[in-house]
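Hello again, I could really use a second opinion on something today. My current little project is about how a certain protein chain folds up. You're getting the sequence in one-letter code plus the fold written as tokens. Here's the protein in full, and shout if anything looks odd to you:
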Amino acid sequence: METGRTEKVSFSHHKIHTDIIINTAPEAVWSVLTDTANYGSWAAFLVGIEGQIADGESINVAFQLDPNKEKLTRIDHTITVVDGQEFYWAERGPGGIRDNHHFRVEAAGDGKTRFVQSDEIIGGMTFLMGGRLAKLYLKGYQAFNRGLKAEAERRRNVG
């Protein structure tokens, strides 16, 4: 099961919410999510993270907004981590847009996991391009979520 939606909160504030059920334990999903060295083999949209997923660490995130183009957007973030449960950043990106991006892993019963990826884009150029960005991000986040699901379930079956 997979869901996704965008919400225009105001002229310069949009929310994006996605979630997916993954048929393996939360610990296994967290392991894939924090194995950033292997993002290149399965991740879409958010195609790479350099740095360690640890509270207060600085990471460099690579986004590929359009999978038909080679162009990557790189942004440095300081992350907050609740080990085994979630990580997120809330910083300014290009165009002065503030980004509140969350990745959360939750037990869903029967050895399954609910993975939630959500975001808020606020301020800066959001008034000009927020709706378009929210739709683009929604599509990209859902592709990332499906890749995470496939990789976590693949590793479960290999292990």
Notes: The longest strand covers residues 98-109.
